[in-house]
Amino acid sequence: MVFLLADIAYGFHLIPSHWVCHSWIGSIVLLVLMSSIFGYGYWKYNQKARVSLDIVTAKKLERPLMIVLLSDLHLGYHNRASELKRWINMINKENPDLVLIGGDIIDRSIRPLVHDGMAEMLRQINAPVFACLGNHEYYASSKENQKNSIKRRIFTFCVMKP
């Protein structure tokens, strides 16, 4: 995107040509800009926070329910077991009545989940868990479609307690 913007700016004569073509200044500015963008993105990624949301229902409940909703976990090579353990501790501290997982439990492969023992970690959630599968589970199933129903394996692996 930065190169596209630089080309557009150069085309409209908004930046001088000596900044774009064979320029140390242009390269340094681009390096600083890209490092800043990626650094800010990484910082924001690590700023996960609890968001409280009160939902009013017309249905009579015996007591207020605490429901935890997770989405886009992308467990695997990117979000490792240590991160999952931290999330499970956060979930259990809430003492939820129910946990919902809204898809993308894995990040394209179930192999790192098996290798790192993440199934056992997910089973440490102290509440009933309901999940639906997302597009990343679909990507995984399209690769390994011939072996077993990977969608069923992922769901059982991640959600069902023995």
TrEMBL record:
Superkingdom to which the source organism belongs: Bacteria
SUPFAM superfamilies membership: Metallo-dependent phosphatases (SSF56300)
GO MF term list: hydrolase activity
Entry keyword set: Membrane, Transmembrane, Transmembrane helix
Domain Calcineurin-like phosphoesterase intervals: 67-147
Segments traversing the membrane: 24-43
PANTHER family for the chain: TRANSMEMBRANE PROTEIN WITH METALLOPHOSPHOESTERASE DOMAIN, TRANSMEMBRANE PROTEIN WITH METALLOPHOSPHOESTERASE DOMAIN-RELATED
Name of the protein: Calcineurin-like phosphoesterase domain-containing protein
Species annotation: Riemerella columbipharyngis
